[in-house]
Amino acid sequence: MEEEELSEEEHLRQEEEEEEEEEALSEQEEEEQVREALVPCPLTEEMLKEGLSLLCKTSNGLAHAYVKFEAKYKDLTDISLLECFIHLRYVDLSENKLQDLSPLSSLTHLLWLKVDGNLLTSARMQELPYLQIISFAHNHIKDMEGITHPCLANLSLKGDTDHLSLLFLIWHVFCLSHQVMVRETLFQQTWSLNLNT
């Protein structure tokens, strides 16, 4: 009798595992289809003019430059035009269709970056010396490599991150010795790590 109950339990566990695997595969296939179906939508000069604001002195104090850029809900897939705006300090590119943040590597004065609701699977970026706050909420982040910004104080991964990302995050917290907040909807609580140097 006990053997029958055990085999039933094992059978149910196997079925649950198979269902979870099928769901994960279908989610991956769906993500790939979305990526393949993307219509290219690069950042234009017109969008750039609309999104630039906050005129401030440059770091050397000899000139003025726009330091804030916002382009939300534009379906952007390419932000290469931002590479030239090296004095930007605040960038909000939320709710677009971005898959790559490499054009932001030249923004060495960047302090604050918000890229919520995009199609990002990696947090990989070149090290930015002054970047303090990053929000990757509601993306598909699976790879935390590249989060090596020396002044990073707040990192948000609210939304659909997985356990592997959380482990990478904890590793980077120990490496960076900073305060990092992760809001995991899966656990329905806020994880906060604060490491004093």
Q: Kindly report the average pLDDT value.
A: 79
Q: Unreliable runs, pLDDT <50, ≥5 residues?
A: 177-197
DSSP, total strands: 8
What order do the helices and strands follow? Answer: HHEEEEEEHEE
**SSE class:** alpha/beta
- What is the first-to-last residue Cα distance? 59 Å
Tell me the quaternary state.
Answer: single chain
Going across the biggest sheet, name each strand in turn.
1-2-3-4-5-6
Strand proportion: 15-25%
Discrete helix count: 3
Main beta sheet: 6 strands, mixed
Biased composition (Acidic residues): 15-33
InterPro entries: Leu-rich_rpt, LRR_dom_sf, SDS22/Internalin_LRR
Keywords: Leucine-rich repeat, Repeat
Protein name: Leucine rich repeat containing 23
Give the arrangement of secondary structure elements.
Blueprint: H1 2-36, H2 45-51, E1 52-57, E2 64-70, E3 90-92, E4 112-114, E5 133-135, E6 154-156, H3 163-176, E7 180-184, E8 189-193
Parallel strand pairs: 2-3, 3-4, 4-5, 5-6
Antiparallel strand pairs: 1-2, 7-8
Protein name: Leucine rich repeat containing 23
Biased composition (Acidic residues): 15-33
Organism: Anser brachyrhynchus
Q: Your description of this structure?
A:
This protein is α/β, with parallel strands linked by helices and 197 residues long. A hairpin with a 6-residue loop joins strand 1 and strand 2 (64-70). The protein is built from three helices and eight strands. The chain has helices at residues 2-36, 45-51, 163-176; strands at residues 52-57, 64-70, 90-92, 112-114, 133-135, 154-156, 180-184, 189-193. Residues 15-33 have a biased composition (Acidic residues).
